[in-house]
Design brief:
Blueprint: H1 2-6, E1 16-20, H2 40-47, E2 50-54, H3 60-75, H4 84-87, H5 98-118, H6 123-128, H7 130-137, E3 139-143, E4 146-150, E5 159-165, E6 171-179, E7 184-186
Parallel strand pairs: 1-2
Antiparallel strand pairs: 2-5, 3-4, 5-6, 6-7
Helix pairs in contact: 5-7
Length: 192
């Protein structure tokens, strides 16, 4: 973005769309213009004309931070009694995919509860019926890894967010795009 700024390509006639799908590259996109190069204000000006396409929304980072801290704290307690040294985790953060694992366990629990409710007389049959579990997994919920939608075939439906700076220069989600097999669903209008 600094190259665009230096080339004077950051006026109202320019819009940059930046795909940000790799959570290893940046944990918090809300300050991605900050660096040690002394040009934060130039980069910030350039980012005013940028939209980021991401698989996370701006609220998920805060939620994930709290979740990560909670996991690390609970590792010190029963039944693990494992501190940061034991975990070989000097940063004190949960693994990258801890939220996905938590959502998978939650999804399984939801599907299992629905299956048990449908076949309460024969619990063994309800627990062992994979087709019923798959059918009962279909749906959506707000999870630790973001908004989770499970389709009819049992796969997670991609959810993307369009993020940018609002009029107060704060990062905001302008649109959520839920993909389906044949189309997309625009959850929020960007411009009225």
């Amino acid at each position: 973005m600094l190259q665009a700024y230096d080339a004077r390509m950051t006026g109202d006639e320019y819009v940059y769309i930046l795909p940000e799908m790799d959570d290893r590259r940046t944990k918090d996109v809300s300050d991605m213009w900050k660096s040690n190069d002394g040009r934060d204000s130039d980069a910030f000006e350039a980012f005013k004309n940028a939209l980021m396409l991401d698989n996370e929304n701006e609220r998920k980072n805060l939620f994930s931070t709290n979740f990560s801290e909670s996991i690390v704290e609970k590792m010190d307690d029963w039944p693990f009694y494992c501190d940061a040294k034991c975990q070989d985790n000097p940063l004190g953060e949960a693994g990258r995919y801890a939220g996905h694992l938590a959502d998978s366990v939650y999804l399984y629990g939801r599907a299992l509860n629905r299956s048990l409710a449908q076949n309460s007389k024969n619990r063994n049959l309800a627990v062992g019926d994979g087709q019923a579990l798959l059918k009962n997994a279909v749906g959506s919920f707000d999870g630790y890894s973001g908004h989770v939608i499970i389709g009819e075939n049992g796969t997670r439906v991609p959810v993307f967010y369009i993020l940018g700076l609002n009029s107060s220069s704060l990062l905001q989600s302008f649109a959520r795009i839920d993909m389906t097999e044949n189309s997309f669903v625009s959850v929020r209008t960007i411009f009225a």
